[in-house]
């Protein structure tokens, strides 16, 4: 059975930056959340960061202490995949690797009930392609693409794959609203809406850096002061993660049959190979 009223327990696969934000948002709205990761240290770090975020909201008077405590108690961290069996909906927030995502969906199908909904947080891969990992009922697979930080950013792209049923689409859309988000329904096209448009924002900025020998801070300042952007392209890449941004760019480039306008930048490639990934490594285009 679909319908928001039947969603009581939400599973989240992956406790990284995106997964943590999704867990935080779901737990705060009263859902029991089971977050799975193979790394226990990563889980503990995630839980600590989520609780710290709640505490900051309490200090600012934006959240009652009792509500923060309730949300914290709604979160269960597990390293045993079988613990996800009780979930009514599972949101996959693993790294952008389509083979890994398919493996996870295949495994989750084996242990959950037939009515469970499977949502992928992929930012660029085909929801339809991911859904083929299921042996039965591919109609319960849907895209639910949050934006970083997921507990704060309002937009959620709800992606309808070729097999996604209307009931599943409507349930996930209602869930996004319940979480305080603004859902936008997308077709299952490469990179959906935001990331497809954003390729030019990042790509042209990187070209200008390479061709004009301009620094990140100069380009960012121009884009903010004259373009009216809240963040410049290089600040945003550092926030998202340069490795994540490069991965999305590569997948879009391949999906559009190597159209040159989506071609990845060697600047990003070099930074990823050097471990300069942005805020999460304390250095990217800027030092933190």
Order of secondary-structure elements: EHEHHEEHEHEEHEHHHHH
Helix tally equals 11
Number of domains: 2
Head-to-tail CA distance between termini: 47 Å
Average pLDDT taken over every residue: 96
* Largest sheet strand order: 3-2-1-4-5-6-7-8
Task: Give the CATH level 1 class of the largest domain.
Answer: Alpha Beta
Q: What is the architecture of the largest domain at the second tier of CATH?
A: 3-Layer(aba) Sandwich
- Which term fits the overall shape? globular
Low-confidence stretches: none
What share of the residues does DSSP label as strand, in percent?
Answer: 5-15%
Give the beta-strand count: 8
**In the CATH hierarchy, what is the superfamily of the largest domain?**
NAD(P)-binding Rossmann-like Domain
Q: Tell me the Rg in angstroms.
A: 19 Å
Structural summary, described in words:
- With 288 residues, this protein is of the alpha/beta class.
- It has two domains: 4-187, NAD(P)-binding Rossmann-like Domain (Rossmann fold); 195-281, N-(1-d-carboxylethyl)-l-norvaline Dehydrogenase, domain 2, CATH 1.10.1040.
- Helix content is 46%, strand content 14%.
- Strands 3-2-1-4-5-6-7-8 form an eight-stranded mixed beta sheet, with helices on both faces.
- The radius of gyration is 19 Å and the shape is globular.
- The relative contact order is 0.10.
């Amino acid at each position: 059975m679909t319908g928001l009223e039947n969603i009581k327990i939400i599973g989240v696969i992956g406790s990284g930056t995106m997964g943590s934000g999704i867990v935080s948002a779901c737990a705060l709205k009263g859902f029991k959340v089971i977050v799975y990761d193979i790394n226990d240290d990563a889980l503990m770090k995630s839980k600590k960061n989520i609780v710290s975020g709640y505490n900051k909201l309490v200090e600012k008077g934006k959240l009652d202490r009792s509500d923060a405590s309730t949300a914290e108690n709604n979160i269960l961290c597990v390293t045993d995949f079988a613990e996800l069996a009780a979930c009514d909906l599972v949101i996959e927030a693993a790294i952008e690797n389509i083979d890994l995502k398919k493996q996870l969906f295949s495994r989750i199908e084996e242990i959950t009930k037939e009515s469970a909904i499977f949502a992928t947080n992929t930012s660029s891969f085909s929801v339809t392609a991911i859904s083929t990992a299921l042996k039965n009922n591919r109609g319960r697979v849907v895209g639910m693409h949050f934006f970083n930080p997921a507990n704060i950013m309002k937009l959620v792209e709800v992606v309808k794959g070729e097999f996604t049923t209307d009931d599943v689409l409507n349930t996930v859309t209602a869930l996004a609203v319940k979480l305080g988000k603004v859902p936008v329904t997308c077709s299952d096209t490469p990179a959906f809406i935001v990331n497809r448009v954003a390729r030019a924002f990042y790509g042209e900025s990187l070209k200008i850096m390479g061709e004009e020998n301009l620094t990140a801070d100069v380009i960012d300042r121009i884009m903010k002061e004259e373009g009216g952007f809240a963040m410049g392209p290089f600040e945003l890449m550092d926030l998202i993660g340069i490795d994540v941004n490069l991965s999305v760019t590569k997948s879009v480039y391949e999906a559009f049959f190597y159209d040159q306008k989506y071609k990845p930048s060697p600047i990003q490639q070099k930074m990823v190979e050097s471990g300069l990934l942005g805020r999460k490594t304390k250095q990217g285009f800027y030092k933190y």
